[in-house]
Write a structure and sequence with these properties.
Blueprint lengths: L1 E3 L5 E7 L6 E2 L1 H11 L7 E6 L2 E2 L1 H10 L2 E4 H12 L1
Parallel strand pairs: 2-4, 3-5, 4-6
Antiparallel strand pairs: 1-2
Helix pairs in contact: 1-2
Length: about 80
């Protein structure tokens, strides 16, 4: 999915629906990183997953400026804060 943020930056989102017991590893993010900026021109690359990211994947994302969103964990965290 490709869109624009209110400030005009281009956001490119990749969503993966995996079983909760799976994890997203560094290879998935390497593929995403390889095209998100050069091919799609992303200012904000966002990778959304229905499962957790490995430690190596999080480290790769931090080094390359990728935004990660783990639907289950991140949504749970927001629910706890909102209560």
């Amino acid at each position: 999915m490709i869109g624009r943020l209110p400030d005009g930056r281009k956001i490119v989102v990749q969503c993966k629906r995996y079983a909760k017991h799976r994890t997203v590893g560094s290879p998935d993010l390497q593929k995403f990183n390889g095209t998100v900026r050069d091919e799609h021109g992303a200012d904000v690359p966002l990778f959304v997953a229905s499962c957790k990211f490995t430690k190596q994947a999080r480290a790769f994302a931090a080094r390359h400026g990728l935004v990660l969103f783990d639907v289950f964990s991140d949504c749970q965290r927001r629910v706890r804060v909102a209560r």
